[in-house]
Amino acid sequence: MSQKKNVLLISRNSHKEAKLLFGLTAGRCEFFGCNKNLLKHHITGDAGNFADMGHIYAFSKNGPRGKAKGRPKKDYEIDSLDNLILLCKEDHHEIDKVRPQDFSVAKLRSYKKIHEDRIQKQTDAGEQDSSHVLKMAATVSNQADVISEPSVREAIAPLWKCNDTANDIQLANIDCETASGLETARETIKNSIIDFQRKVKDDQAQSVSIFAIGPIYLLTFLGSQLSNQVKTHFYNKSRNHLKPWQWTKRGTGVKFKVENVQKGSNKGKVALVLSVSGKVNESGYTNVADDSFYIYEISSSNMTPGRELLKSVTDLESFRSVYRDVLEKLIREHPDVKSLHVFPAVPAAIAVTLGFDLLQKVHPKLVMYDYMRNRGGFIKKLVI
Ligand SMILES: [Zn+2]
């Protein structure tokens, strides 16, 4: 598009279409991954209009994508909202001048749709829909992971983050395999949560959102430290690389059941086996839970164990309600039990809720075990 046409376009469009486009894009560049604020100078910060309005089908037949199939015939259609994309100068130049062959109509339309959908979703939320975000990333088998900011924002939408002050529990450099490392991790989690709860209280936050990865026993400990006085949203990391933390609407429809897999000789000894992300083999825990134990197992009633069983909040809730039933059953049928020995193969969100749903004054303590392949079974890690 020539400079002259650009000027003409803006004067022609300076009313309705331009206003709509600025509104729908929130004045930000729609090029995928750019999102530059075009209503403020990137260096001086001065307010102004630094946007270009690009055409998806060029205004002229000889311009970029001007000969592509489906180009509208009439001028007013070319200048319609559907055919306009808000861009920063650099990206406009890239698309129309540097390598127009790389930017098809379909590609630009997808940029426009992704950006405008996102703006819509984020701004649908009102003041009351804010949430405090807590992130914890502990090392599992020497593999450190990070929880990226954009993925968090994406996952909590239409809620929005209360503030940008990081609420991160820093555990990346702690080796939880050692007793002293584990103690440091516990202290760090405990103190970080005290700080976090204080912030939540000061801000009178409506809800908190938890993003956590790490060994199961540490996640359960994290859950046990959280207050159930505030509405709490739990998230789970999936293998979807683009939207790793996002719950889906439909979920997998997984259902859970509890079975009494062993009636022991002593009602005061109870173990809970959790076969969710994998099937827990009996041989892994019989060294601890011998014939004297009552053993209960929670597993899915309609799916085989696997890493991707949880895809929605409903999927998670369906586990939690069975787990809470087990805790209630313990009070009724095993009134003398002081500790519940837990052998878990569960996704992170479940691990956190194991601690969160435990009422410390009512329920027995959780003795958390960790499966260690090289030791051939479960090893006791933590009492919660
Ligand atoms: Zn841009």
Description of the structure:
By secondary structure, this protein is α/β, with parallel strands linked by helices. The protein is built from 10 helices and 13 strands. It has 3 domains: 3-122, no CATH class; 126-235, Rossmann fold; 256-383, Rossmann fold (3-Layer(aba) Sandwich), CATH 3.40.50. Helix 7 (179-202) runs parallel beside helix 8 (216-225), helix 8 crosses helix 10 and helix 9 packs across helix 10 (348-356). The longest helix is centred in the middle third of the chain and has 24 residues, at 179-202. The chain starts with a helix and ends with a strand. Residues 29, 31, 34, 36, 87-88, 90-91 line the site of zinc ion (ZN).
Low-confidence stretches: 1-11
Q: Which structural class do you get from the secondary structure elements?
A: alpha/beta
How far apart are the first and last residues' alpha carbons, in Å?
Answer: 66 Å
Strand order of the largest sheet: 8-10-9-11-12-13
Main sheet record: 6 strands, mixed
Task: Let me know the average pLDDT.
Answer: 90
Bound molecules: zinc ion
* Fraction in helix: 25-40%
Q: Calculate Rg over CA atoms.
A: 27 Å
Task: Identify the CATH class of the largest domain.
Answer: Alpha Beta
Second-tier CATH architecture of the largest domain: 3-Layer(aba) Sandwich
How many H/I helical runs? 10
Here the CATH topology of the largest domain equals Rossmann fold
Strand content: 15-25%
Return the string of H and E elements.
Answer: HHEHEHHEHEEHEHEEEEHEHEE
